[in-house]
UniProtKB/TrEMBL annotation:
The keyword Electron transport does not apply. Pfam families: DDE_1, HTH_Tnp_Tc5. It is found in: Nucleus. Residues 65-136 form the HTH CENPB-type domain. Keywords: DNA-binding. The keyword Cell membrane does not apply. Its main location: nucleus. One of its GO terms (cellular component) is nucleus. GO terms for molecular function: DNA binding. This is Tigger transposable element-derived protein 6.
Amino acid sequence: MNNNKRKRLNLEEKLNIIKTKETENLSVRVLAERFCISKSQVNNILQDACNLKKYYAKNGNEDMRRKFSKTSDGALVDKVTFEWFCRARSYNLPVSGPLLQEKAREVANEVGLKNFKVSNGWLQKFRERHNISFKNICGEGNSVDTSVVEKWLEKLKTLISDYEPKNIFNCDETGLFFQALPDKTLCLKNEICRGGKIAKDRLTVLLCVNMIGEFETPLIIGKSLKPRCFKSVNVSTLGVNWKANRKA
């Protein structure tokens, strides 16, 4: 049964509730029963999820922070910093190199290593020891409220029930940065890797398809109705509907 009494939770416990919601998509009632707290308390935690994650990334968990003696060495700093890194990533928090270095300095101060050097070399060796790579964060899947999606899917079934699949379409707009280069590259170990100015030239593309997989002719909007590259081209043969708008 659900315990309606308000229970004091530390930051780690609150983040655990948020993680459980995101990974298992449980209802507020089930979460309240599992963690023995009230439904209103669960709601408050979920509504404040963004702020809780930001606070954890900046300060760590005060309730879980360990107190070490001044005889601790660099191996202890390494161990505690890696544990913090793993917890932060388990909550899908982005961790940059400077943030990791700042956390290591904080841990070193706590254990009494005032002269501990957290240099770029330390960071590189730390990454090699723990097999940590640097990647781009892809998508926003973890920002989606799955309960809202489920409600919409149920409503959608009712809305399309009177239509044949061939008459049900999905349409979406996107930007095509046709001159953009990759934002990462392989380079020599000692090479200073610099990038040039990012190309922002783009086309606006509208794509549409029905439930049986039949595509409508794509709509592409450029900035000019007759760009220079179309000088000897019959636009009607391109297989797209070409339009122009200066703000495309």
